[in-house]
Write a structure and sequence with these properties.
It is built from seven helices and 20 strands. The chain is α+β, with helices and mostly antiparallel strands. The chain has three domains: 184 residues, HUPs (Rossmann fold); 58 residues, Adenine nucleotide alpha hydrolases-like domains (SH3 type barrels, Roll), CATH 2.30.30.280; 91 residues, Translation factors (Elongation Factor Tu (Ef-tu), domain 3, Beta Barrel), CATH 2.40.30.10. It starts with a strand and ends in an 8-residue tail after the last strand.
Length: 376
């Protein structure tokens, strides 16, 4: 099989490419240039996709003995990931740029180009597994190492994309074993730290970056009853569940801390309240997709687990595909058996049945388990 190996410059993608070669595939390595500032150098373990990463990927490809190319996807990345990130925050939502990058770049733009060039599949260093149902349809599953499992950020993959995806690290019990293998192969990236934070905000100052790109405007902080309890200099700087940095001028009647419950960009307001009000009894979204075959009779409630963050624990729930009362659009509605904590619109909810990724949706609305006026 002719395989295009996406090589980020990290240890995972290097080992994944090497394993694809060991499996007998005809492999070509490619590094995606996503930064619009190609002179940027990597700092510590922050960010990725820099010149240093490109050079690390090339050294690994040379050692494996495969052709290596750099493809400029910076314009597509800006439009589909960076601009989307800005727009979502401007609308008061909290997006997941890594999940969007997988959806729009690595398994859309890259895979489309790979197929056009005659490749059969794209190989990445994600920790996830592909299995088959009784009819031979591909299914996306959690990696064997749950601590490193990355199936959450791959929940956007469709059945067609899964047909052309390879995840050679899915059965590896731990990241330490991958590093040991990299060292045995002589890869210089064997001890390279993992990247973290948002790759296009390498200094980690998300608030400052958003202030520059979204702008700041003074607004009011209100409690759930509508009373003004403080002010802010930019609603985008606040996220649901936030406690620190609120600088409220009016203490809560019971003296307890208050948390951000909602961000309203149109009125430029931030709503705060007690921690108990962060408990969410229902989430729903119209932007959904199924990772492989959709569930049978999805219009009826079915049992599943829902995960709302990359490193969150999955929660037992029931889900169904129904119709939004206001728009008439189909939407996925999930009711967790125990309330979810601090859910923000814009987050991605990934549904699991056992280890299988069933699908995902972007959360458009939430229903609090503690109605306004109820005793918290």
């Amino acid at each position: 099989m002719k395989v295009l190996a996406a090589m980020s410059g990290g240890v995972d993608s290097a080992v994944a490419a090497a394993r694809a070669v060991d499996a007998g595939h005809d492999v070509v390595g490619v590094h995606l240039a996503l930064s619009r500032m190609p002179g940027t150098l990597r700092t510590g373990s922050r960010g990725c996709c820099t010149i240093e990463d490109s050079m690390d990927a090339q050294r690994a490809a040379n050692m494996i003995g495969i052709p290596y190319y750099v493809w400029d996807f910076s314009e597509r990345f800006k439009e589909d990931v960076v601009d989307d990130f800005i727009a979502e925050y401007a609308a008061g939502r909290t997006p997941n740029p890594c999940l969007r990058c997988n959806e729009k770049i690595k398994f859309a733009a890259l895979l489309e180009k790979a197929l056009d060039l005659g490749f059969d599949a794209v190989c990445t260093g994600h920790y996830a597994s592909i299995d088959y149902d009784a009819d031979g349809n591909r299914e996306l599953h959690r990696a064997s190492a749950w601590a490193k499992d990355q199936s959450y950020v791959l929940g956007v993959l469709t059945a067609e994309q899964l047909e052309h995806s390879l995840f050679p690290l899915g059965d590896t019990p731990s990241k330490d074993l991958v590093r040991e293998e990299a060292a045995q192969r002589g890869f210089t990236v064997a001890s390279k730290p993992d990247s973290h934070d948002i790759c296009f905000i390498p200094d980690g100052d998300t608030r400052g970056w958003l202030a520059e790109h979204v702008g700041s405007a003074t607004g009011e902080i209100r409690d759930r009853e509508g009373n003004i309890v403080g002010s802010h200099e930019g609603a985008h700087a606040y996220t649901v569940g936030q406690r620190r940095g609120l600088n409220l001028g009016v203490p809560a009647p019971d003296g307890r801390p208050r948390f951000v419950l909602e961000v309203k960009p149109r009125s430029n307001e931030v709503i705060v309240g007690p921690k108990e009000a962060l408990a969410i009894a229902e989430i729903a979204g119209t932007r959904y997709s199924w990772a492989g075959q959709p569930p049978q009779h999805s219009e009826e409630e079915f049992a599943c687990h829902v995960q709302i963050r990359a490193h969150a624990d999955p929660v037992p729930a029931t889900a169904s595909l129904t119709q939004n009362d206001e728009t008439g659009e189909p939407e996925v509605v999930v009711r967790p058996h125990t309330p979810l904590d601090g859910v923000a619109p814009g987050q991605s909810a990934v549904l699991y049945v056992g280890t299988r990724v069933l699908g995902q949706f972007t959360i458009d609305r939430t229903v609090s388990a503690v109605p306004v006026g109820a005793s918290a």
